[in-house]
Amino acid sequence: MVALIVDVLSWALILGGGAFCVIGAVGMLRMPDVFTRMHAAGVVDTAGLGLILIGLMLQAGFTLVMVKLALILVFVLYTSPMSTHALAQSAVSTGVQPLLADGANNQKDKEDEPSKT
């Protein structure tokens, strides 16, 4: 009975993680700018991969495989936010501006600004 509950729970987690991966992949294709695409990629990394790895850990039981999967999960949970932050900082430092709700960039026209002479 316990094995059936663990199997059902693990497959629910794996299917939920797969759904998050599909939703994140569609989001990466449909989003308009680099910042919203990074958000969709973050959903795939944290929610999708996390649920899949937890489901696989339940399937593996208390073995060395579970320890390895847990280490992969910890590695991804630490590196994913840092890499997303580094990409966002790089985009901002090169002058990429996020899109506003009306589809316009957040930049002012250079002609409208007074010169600093």
Number of beta strands: 0
* pLDDT averaged residue by residue: 87
The secondary structure category is mainly alpha
Given as residue ranges, the uncertain stretches (5+ residues, pLDDT < 50) are: none
Query: How would the global form be characterised?
Result: elongated
What sequence of helices (H) and strands (E) makes up the elements? HHH
Give the radius of gyration. 20 Å
* DSSP helical segment count: 3
Explain this structure to me?
With 117 residues, the chain is an all-alpha fold. It has one domain. Helices cover 74% and strands 0% of the residues. Helix 1 packs antiparallel against helix 2 (34-60) and helix 2 runs antiparallel to helix 3 (64-93). The longest helix has 30 residues, at 64-93. The chain is elongated, with a radius of gyration of 20 Å. The chain starts with a helix and ends in a 24-residue tail after the last helix.
List the helices and strands and how they pair.
Blueprint: H1 2-30, H2 34-60, H3 64-93
Features:
117 residues, mainly alpha, single chain
What's the short version?
The chain is an all-alpha fold and 117 residues long.
